Amino acid sequence: KIKLAHVRRSCTFASLTSTSHSHCWLRCWQCRQEMAGALKGQTRLLQRLGRQGAWEEVLTRLLDLESDFNIDAVVVAVGIGACARAARWEAALGLLYHSERQAVRPNTVVCSSLVAACGNGEAWSVALGVMDQMRCRQIEIDGITCNSCIYACARGQQWPAALSVLGDMMQKG
Q: CA–CA separation, 53 vs 34, rounded Å?
């Protein structure tokens, strides 16, 4: 954290004083590259933890990352994916709400991960609600999203809803 704080200060100072010093622009660009590399490394760590079933650790680390980085939809999708593997749809939904308050706009991958979390947690009605929200927000619904929703409906033995999603998917092409 100390290094990241130094990088941020350097970048801020460089951007303030860069009008007469071209090397400051270069330092600012280098700082941004260092921060982007650090975020990628942290994202890979979160993915590994999620695959190991450590969803609580993933969420804790993700929230810690917010103090050093502007998290994006990729990081949020990794967090929601960890919750999906553990069938923790409530935590996944909470992370989505939290990320929206942080100005992270959900995308297809984020929403598909949430639908998968709902399926694993047998929350078929929430999965259908997420798909409805995707339509309202004009977020693309892909085959992965539809398959996850069908799975959620099947786990809840909601066959008419599963067939409806399948029909919508077939109409879309």
A: 29
Average pLDDT on 92-102 reads 95
Kindly state the tokens that stand for 78: 């990794």
Find the radius of gyration of the CA atoms of the chain.
20
pLDDT, one tens digit per residue, over 73-86 is 999 999 999 999 99
Cα–Cα distances in angstroms (integers) from residue 157 to residues 4, 119, 125, 153, 160, in the given order? 49, 11, 11, 6, 9
Q: And the tokens for 95?
A: 């992370």
Q: Which amino acid is at 68?
A: D
N-terminal to C-terminal alpha carbon distance within the chain: 48
Neighbours of 3 (CB within 10 A): 10
37, 73 contact by CB (below 8 A):
no
Distances (CA, A) of 11 to 15, 19, 22, 111: 6, 14, 13, 34
What one-character-per-residue DSSP string does 35-80 give?
Answer: HHHHHHHHHHHHHHHHHTT-HHHHHHHHHHHTTTS---HHHHHHHH
> What is the structure's pLDDT at 26?
65
Are 79 and 62 a contacting pair, CB within 8 Å? yes
